[in-house]
Amino acid sequence: MNTYIFFNDALQMLVNAYLVSAILLIAASGIGLAVIETIEKSGER
Questions:
Q1: How far, in Å, CA of 7 to CA of 14, rounded?
Q2: What does the angle CA 15 – CA 27 – CA 36 come to, to the nearest 5 degrees?
Q3: CA dihedral of 25, 26, 27, 31, whole degrees rounded to 10
């Protein structure tokens, strides 16, 4: 049993990890902005 990872497979894993992290970052920032906006709106009253 060999434990080698071919370059194409490793590159594909890195690309997938990068895309997933970018999507999660965008989603988390959107949620954070929505929370901040809600807090600011409740503080104005």
A1: 11
A2: 150
A3: 100
Place of tokens 């902005």: 33
Q: What's the distance, CA 12 to chain centroid?
A: 17
Phi then psi dihedrals of residue 31, to 5 deg: -65, -40
pLDDT in tens, 15-31: 999 999 999 999 999 99
Q: Which residues, including other chains, have CB under 8 Å from residue 4's CB and lie 6 or more apart?
A: none
Residue found by looking up tokens 């809600």 in the block = 38
pTM: 0.68
Amino acid at 28: A
